Amino acid sequence: MESEVLIAGAGIGGLTAALTLHARGVDARILESARVLRAMGVGINLLPHAVRELSTLGLGDALTEAAVAPSSICFYSAGGDLLFREPRGLAAGDAYPQLSVHRGRLQMLLLDAVRDRLGAGAVQTGAAVSGFTQTVDHVRVDTVAGPVSGAVLVGADGIGSVVRAALHPEADPLMSSGITMYRGASRMPPFLDGHTMAIIKCANGVDVITYPIGDGLVNWVVQVPTSAPGPLAGRAEWNAPATAGDVVGHLSDWSLDWLDPTELIGHTDQIFSYPMVDKDALPHWGRGRVTLLGDAAHPMYPVGANGGSQAIVDARVLADELSAHGVAGLRTYEQQRRAETSDVVRANREMHGAGASHEPEDLARVTTKYRNDTAGSTRS
What we know:
By secondary structure, this protein is of the alpha/beta class. Helices cover 33% and strands 26% of the residues. It has a single domain, classed as FAD/NAD(P)-binding domain (3-Layer(bba) Sandwich).
């Protein structure tokens, strides 16, 4: 049907977009490259503004049951000294909690909701998008399963977006922070009170971020400086396999009495490595009947726990503008969200650089500045 909104990608942003469009009475169909969608990945944090959007869609109870609500984030030295503590979610006075959840579990929750509300055929798997053409009244999307026509195409196909590359064929490099992130989810009891996120500031610029995500899992990220910042050389290896031996040597000076790094890393079934990258903001996102959403539009460092949350807000603003103004709403959506997410990309870069300090007063200043710099992106 050419009245449908076609969405490239069944990630968190694409699935949420389909749900919010359906809630506004707009037909949507998702074109997903994978032949089978499985619960993959590690932990993700949803900030209160994202939890607000999913709760409005009627998913709040299911999400809360699947997740852990952190009440604080605490910064520690590798020797165990508490450097700084900041309340989070309800404890910080927000109207909604912050939630930590396994990314795959969240994706499956959204996928089930899409299939239940929009129909079993709303997500077409094995349909990787390879290109598109558009006319004044429709867009034709080429996929490996054959062409599909719709009213609008939303590129929610991630940081390696085919849709973005077609819209912006000019140089658009991944920008590396110089950090390699080792990530995993360890099967072990939660630490401290079970509702704390912890950042351990280790020697030589190594940071450890860890938090419970429910279902007996504790998520962890070890950030290791490996190169100078700048355009990423070569290809990005997403989900590259790593071993415990690649990680534990970076934590040799860790002496916390409430968490053993050997246990944390050693009880992890799968360890992955990722480059910490983002991209410079685009001068515009889309044209005509085509736009972008989530990481396809604004890939950002994960330091502010804001990537998935911003994709969810994108989805709601897109649905509002498209349902109210038709195709013209794509441009008003872009104008609003491009400015707001550009602020987040910039703030994440600044927080990553400034957050290298081990001084309590610096950590307090950095986190306060980040909240202020990203406040506009939470109110959309």
